[in-house]
Amino acid sequence: MSTPVLKLFDLTGRVALVTGGSRGLGLQMAEALGEAGAKVMLASRKAADLEQAAAHLADRGIDARWIAIDASNPDEARRLCAETVERLGPVDILVNNAGATWGAPAEDHPLQAWDKVMNLNIRSLFVISQAIARSSMIPRRRGRIINLASIAGLAGNPPGMETVAYNTSKGAVVNFTRALAAEWGEHGITVNAIAPGFFPSRMANATIERFGVDKIIASVPLRRLGDDDDLKGATVLLASQAGKHITGQTLAVDGGVSCVLGG
């Protein structure tokens, strides 16, 4: 007997950890998981932002907690994982969303800035995924990991966008996702990535303001930016039983930009 389709998307009783979950795309994904029934732990650097985000989720009937940490610090990242398990129980869903960018021509890009981007955008994904897999997923032979890539990791930037470290890190996220999916499939863990296009967010707003919405959407087949709903469906699909046979994939949620780029 097949499972009713809405039940496949039900996350009641699941525990989700969302890094970079205090605003923007991370908060949108946390909201989606909570609305589907999961208990949610939010993590980011600023306690005030986290408190506000948790209150927003609570207003929507979501059981949300928070921990302020710097995910680029391996000791703090491991503390986040241990404290999440202690407070909410084993983690069923991990969303690795925390990220940073830095704009500079490649020939002038500071090494310190390169390391900052790499440490948060890819090293922290490994540290947190490893800790959660060890404590929660491998022993129970189940788990869902969703990594945030970007269309910037699928192709080069157009002229004028100088974010070589960010692009490189997001390309690494794509192959990290494939490698981890291949290795951890035997443990019942799926590992997938979402590659957003342009969404209004604190990270993207400077680029949107620099180039203008009209110029950006002119290269988007759907002629629009992403909005507050556009990651929700993909997130719940990859976190739920509906996506149990999907692993190692990168889903572009970009209005069709990657089709134009050939990504």
SSE diagram, text form:
Blueprint lengths: L4 H4 L6 E5 L4 H12 L3 E6 L2 H13 L4 E5 L5 H15 L4 E4 L14 H27 L5 E6 L15 H21 L4 E8 L8 H7 L1 H5 L14 H8 L10 E4 L3 H5 L2
Parallel strand pairs: 1-2, 1-4, 2-3, 4-5, 5-6, 6-7
Helix pairs in contact: 2-9, 4-5, 5-6
What's the short story on this structure?
With 263 residues, the protein is an alpha/beta fold.
Description:
It is built from ten helices and seven strands. With 263 residues, the chain is of the alpha/beta class. It has a single domain, classed as Rossmann fold (3-Layer(aba) Sandwich). Strands 3-2-1-4-5-6-7 form a seven-stranded parallel β-sheet, with helices on both faces. α3 links the parallel β2 and β3. α2 packs across α9 and α5 runs parallel beside α6. The termini are far apart.
